[in-house]
Every structure is written in structure tokens, then in C-alpha cells.
Amino acid sequence: MITKEHIDPANLPKHIAVIMDGNGRWAKQHNKPRVFGHKNGVNAVRETTEAAAELGIKYLTLYAFSTENWKRPALEVNALMALLVETLGKEISRLNDNNIQLKAIGDLKKLPKRTREALLKGIEETSGNTGMVLILALNYSGRWDITQAVQSIIKSGVPSSDITEELITEHLSTKGIPDPELLIRSSGEFRISNFLMWQLSYSELYFTPVFWPEFDKPAFYAAIHDYQNRERRFGMVSEQISTS
Ligand code: FPP
Q1: What does the alpha-carbon distance between residue 49 and residue 61 come to, in Å, rounded to a whole number?
Q2: Quick check: 22 and 44 in contact, CB under 8 A?
């Protein structure tokens, strides 16, 4: 088992993004409704957030609801939205105790009023915290993010010749947040699923067969340990990395 002691504190990713997958299959394994999986998924959210903050990770982004998730049965969508309200209500004080700042990315206008209000309250009440930033991706998709960035650039009247990668980055919902060095996906699926399409260009991808409700601190440490044993070349050759 990988423990905290196996992690090199000098080589931590600044930003870790997570696709929390497998709640439904985990529930099915236990002969329970899918919502039972989501409820247990909240424990994994708590474990991961705590582990990341303890290690000194600066940004943790969790894919909590994708633009495509609206296509699920209404009962499940409503339960997820209610679970978010309930979880935010319960956990904000814990975020404050741990000096964690809450943020959200996604098309938040389209969330149900109660969910949006709970989210905005959480963001407001943790805005003074200076430790880790926990970013919830809600009604988020990578293509939505790039599309809204293009719309906002055009609206600002910038001539096309002035559009650079940096300018696009500045208009994404992750403005001011460094790109994730590491993406973790649980449940044995090997996809990006329209997550941070632009921001993941150079990220290391880590896939684990563990279903999200069973994802815990050792599983998180294992992902970081794996990341720390990789060589990140950014298009260069090995020798250039070792001499830089
Ligand atoms: C994917 O599992 C999970 C989700 C779509 C929702 C994730 C939500 C939570 C963990 C709960 C609330 C979150 C926060 C941040 C408080 P799936 O349903 O796609 O699983 P399956 O692929 O096995 O069907």
C-alpha cells in the first residue's frame, strides 16, 4: 500500500483534476440504487480533498456533473442536485477548518436555483481562505469552456491576429489556475469525457480500476506516486530534461 511517506513533497503536482467515475456500478455491485453510489461517493470526495490539502496540493478540480449528465433519468439528476445542496451545507465548515477555498467552473446559470445558491454561498463563505483551492466542475464540459472563451474574445472586439494561446487561456473558466499536471480517473474507464479539453494538453493521465466510492487516501497517494515516477518531457528528449 502506498502511504503519505512514499510521496516526495518536493515534486508535487500543483493541480490535480479528477474524473470521479463508477458510483453507479459500485451501487449495482451492492444491489442498491445508483443514488446510493453517489451518496457514498461523497465520502471519497471528503477523503480526497483532505488528503490533497494535507499534502499541500494547491488546486484540486473534481468533475461533479458534466453537461452530458443532464441526459440521465430525472430522478438521478434531481438526487445529484439535492446531494450537492446537502453536502455543501454540511461540509463548508470543514472546508473553513482546513483553510480550503471553494470555486466552481461550468455553466452555473443552468443549475437548479437551490444548487446554485448553495454553491454561491459556499464560495462566498470560503473566499477568505488561503490554502488549497477546491474547484467543482458543475454543468461543465471542455467544449463548452472553449466555446464560451471564443464568444467572450469576440465580444471583447480583439482582432483575430491578436488571438493567441495565452489569450484563449485567459478567457477559459480556469483563468488564473495552472493547468493540471495530473488527471486521475477512477473505475477502469480510459477516457477524458469532455473534461478540461484545453487544460489537459500536457497532463499525465492516471487510470485506476477502483470505483469512486472506494477511492481513498492510499488510492490518491498511489496516483501521485505513479506521477512522481514518470518523466515529463513536454515534446523534448530525455537528455534535455535531465540537464535543464
Ligand atoms: C460518476 O459515476 C459520478 C457522477 C456523475 C457524479 C459524482 C458525484 C458525486 C461523487 C457526489 C457529489 C459530489 C460532490 C462534489 C459533493 P457514474 O454514475 O457515472 O458511475 P457509473 O459509470 O458506474 O454508472
Answers
A1: 10
A2: no
Q: What is the pLDDT of residues 4-62, one digit of tens each?
A: 999 999 999 999 999 999 999 999 999 999 999 999 999 999 999 999 999 999 999 99
- The yes-or-no answer on residue 69 being catalytic is yes
Q: Which residues line ligand 1 (CB under 6 A)?
A: 20-25, 34, 38, 41-42, 45, 62, 64, 69, 80, 83-84, 87, 136, 187, 212
Best CA proximity match to 134, nearest among 105, 172, 170: 105
In a 3-state reduction of DSSP, which class is residue 175? coil
Q: Is 21 a catalytic residue?
A: yes
Fold for 12-143+178-243, please state it: Undecaprenyl pyrophosphate synthetase (3.40.1180)
Burial of 41 from C-beta contacts in 10 A (0-12 / 13-18 / 19+): buried
* Identified catalytic residue from 43, 69, 96, 98: 69
| Edge-to-edge strand ranges of the sheet holding 133-140 | 101-105, 133-140, 59-66, 15-19, 182-185, 204-207
pTM for this prediction: 0.96
- Interatomic CA distance for residues 208 and 237, integer angstroms: 28
Of 63, 100, 211, 212, the one to substitute when testing ligand 1's pocket (max ligand atoms within 8 A of C-beta) is 212
60 Cα: distance to centroid of ligand 1 (angstroms): 16
